[in-house]
Design a protein that fits this description.
- The radius of gyration is 26 Å and the shape is globular.
- The strands form 2 sheets. Strands 3-2-4-5-1-6-11-10-9 form a 9-stranded mixed sheet, sandwiched between helices. Strands 7-8 form a two-stranded antiparallel sheet.
- Helix 13 (390-399) runs antiparallel to helix 14 (404-417).
- The chain is α/β, with parallel strands linked by helices.
- The chain is built from 15 helices and 11 strands.
- A hairpin with a 3-residue loop joins strand 10 (443-450) and strand 11 (454-462).
- Pfam families: ACP_syn_III_C, FAE1_CUT1_RppA.
């Protein structure tokens, strides 16, 4: 990655350099290319008609098709987008003093004098059935009695979860903060002013012309959504590096009331963050782990039932919290089906598409017939699933016809780190790497589902052997203990 670092390395005094290819010039270039192709085709057709009318020799009729084929090939290669690579990523391993065993959590909430005995019993049941272990983490602000949920503590949490993973990613990839052209940060519940991206830019003295995007309110699917956004930006801005940061600030999301539909958030969400480096530079291919194959986004916010299935609102006492409705699993299933049906049409082999089409037709005429579930394992080797809870993981796995081994990464991530919102998918990928299961040529499907509701898919292809990952990242000290069985 040293070569990537040296390219476009601009001193701070001369940081404000315009893009070589702006959105406007890109659009004009595309329109010009299409116009030239249309004119060439029109002229060639006119010439062919002229040759026919003049009864010219056969060799003249062969020249024009060859010329058109050449023009088509030139247009195809000129307009073909550059490949986008996932160079590397980093996940936070929270400090041990942030660990919160169940007994500690329940003892603390019983001392807050905010929750009644029924609420404490409900949280105890939710914890023990959640699928997470005694090793998960909460930020220091939630270890206080009562919790400190004001702005200052939230900013401290931001610094605690973001700065270490940025440092680690820059160190692993050997690039400077000045080499970052695009910065995308997602955090659903905390949106300060200046923005979170501004905090990062200020800390690392990044360039004045960096393109920064602060994404909020997108829930657990935000990380995959931001990879899709990064892809679209890298399609426009050539020879660029993009960093995606994914986290959730828990101190602002703490609920201090007694409505059961809002108490689940306190029990399920845990501390975590991830930093991902994407690049479209040619030199990145030499050291990158993966190539981005495809992204797809689906949402159902247009439907009232889906929209209100998970929403942040005040309770009867004016206390803010996230309400999770009972029909959330059904809504999630509908959103997931819409996403995978379109993704499947793009990546599945013809045989799977055929049997799916046949089952749809049979279902229309024979009500008892079920819809054929395509076998995604024909094209995908590894699956990173939503970590919303053990029942959700198993239900998604069942819907996709996945085995225990294929949902293992999601179950073990939930067990070891809890639900870390949008960053959980990267802990799952880190688990697969630490287990040395990802090999060159393998494809990995990251499936994110979040409030809105929305479902986002990202497919990567491994482009080089991954060696020695077992002693790196958040799983380094415990990967030999996993998988843990049984979890039910």
């Amino acid at each position: 990655m040293e070569a990537i670092s040296k390219q476009n390395h601009v001193p701070a005094l001369h940081a404000a350099t315009p893009d070589q290819l702006t959105l406007l010039s890109k659009d004009l270039f595309s329109k010009l290319l299409n116009s030239l192709w249309a004119c060439t085709f029109l002229l060639a057709t006119s010439a062919e008609v002229f040759f026919l009318l003049q009864n010219w020799e056969l060799k003249f009729h062969c020249v024009l098709p060859c010329f058109l084929l050449l023009c088509f090939l030139v247009k195809h290669f000129v307009s073909k987008p550059s490949p986008i690579y996932l160079v590397d990523f980093s996940c936070l391993k929270p400090p041990s003093y942030c660990r919160v065993p169940f007994a500690t959590f329940l003892e603390n909430v019983s001392m807050f004098e905010l929750f009644d005995s029924e609420s404490i019993a409900f949280m105890s049941k939710a914890l023990h059935s959640s699928g997470q272990s005694e090793e998960t983490y909460l930020p220091p602000s939630l270890h206080y009695i009562p919790p400190k949920t004001h702005q200052t503590e939230s900013i401290k949490e931001v610094q605690m979860v973001l700065f270490p993973i940025i440092d680690d990613l820059l160190s692993k990839t050997n690039i400077s903060p000045l080499d970052i052209d695009i910065l995308i940060l997602n955090c659903s519940g905390f949106c300060p002013s200046p923005s979170l991206t501004s905090i990062v830019i200020n800390k690392y003295s990044m360039r004045s012309d960096i393109k920064s995007y602060n994404v909020s309110g997108m829930g657990c699917s935000a990380s995959t959504l931001c990879v899709d956004l990064a892809q679209r930006l890298l399609r426009v801005h050539k020879n660029s590096n993009a960093i995606v940061l994914s986290t959730e600030i828990l101190s602002t999301g703490w609920y201090s009331g007694n409505e059961k539909s809002k108490l689940l958030i306190n029990c399920l969400f845990r501390m975590g963050s991830a930093a991902i480096l994407l690049s479209n530079k040619k030199v990145a291919k030499k050291s990158a782990k993966y190539r981005l194959v495809r992204t797809h986004r689906t949402q159902r916010a247009f439907d009232d039932k889906a929209y209100f299935s998970a929403i942040r609102e005040e309770d009867s006492e004016g206390k803010l919290g996230v309400t999770l409705k009972r029909d959330l699993p059904q809504v999630a299933g509908e959103t997931l089906r819409a996403n995978i049906s379109i993704l499947g049409s793009e990546i599945l082999p013809l045989s799977e598409k055929f049997w799916y089409g046949v089952s749809v037709i049979k279902k229309r005429f024979i009500k008892s017939e079920g819809i054929y579930v395509p076998n995604f394992k024909t094209v995908i080797q590894h699956f990173c699933l939503p970590c919303s809870g053990r029942p959700v993981i198993r239900e998604v796995g069942k819907g996709l016809k996945l085995s225990e081994r294929e949902i293992e990464a999601a179950l073990m991530t939930l067990h070891r780190f809890g639900n870390q919102s949008s960053s959980s998918l990267w802990y799952e990928l880190a688990y697969l790497e630490a287990k040395e299961r990802v090999h060159k040529g393998h494809k990995i499907w990251l499936l994110g589902m979040g409030s809105g509701p929305k479902c986002n898919s990202v497919v990567f292809k491994c482009i080089r052997p991954l060696v020695g990952e077992y002693n790196k990242g958040p799983w380094a000290d415990c990967i030999h203990q996993y998988p843990i069985s049984p979890l039910d």
